[in-house]
Amino acid sequence: MTGEGPNHTLRRLRQQRNLSQAELAEEIRDTAQRMGLHLACDEKRIGRWERGEVRWPSPRTGGCCAWSSGSRTPKSWGSGL
Question: What's 34's domain CATH number?
Fold first, then answer.
């Protein structure tokens, strides 16, 4: 499934927090675990989202991304969800 182009918002937010792609993936996994979810997320997946190679993650994963940043909404991370 192809994306809609690079997600500059996600990359900018990650860089503003001084996180590597691996560190962001770890935060997302940790947040999911606290929510009782098991999500497969690694730096490769983050890179694919940022480059727009795949569509933004599922609502469940997008929600974990948002919650890990404290924003509470996937749209704030550049998601179309």
Answer: 1.10.260
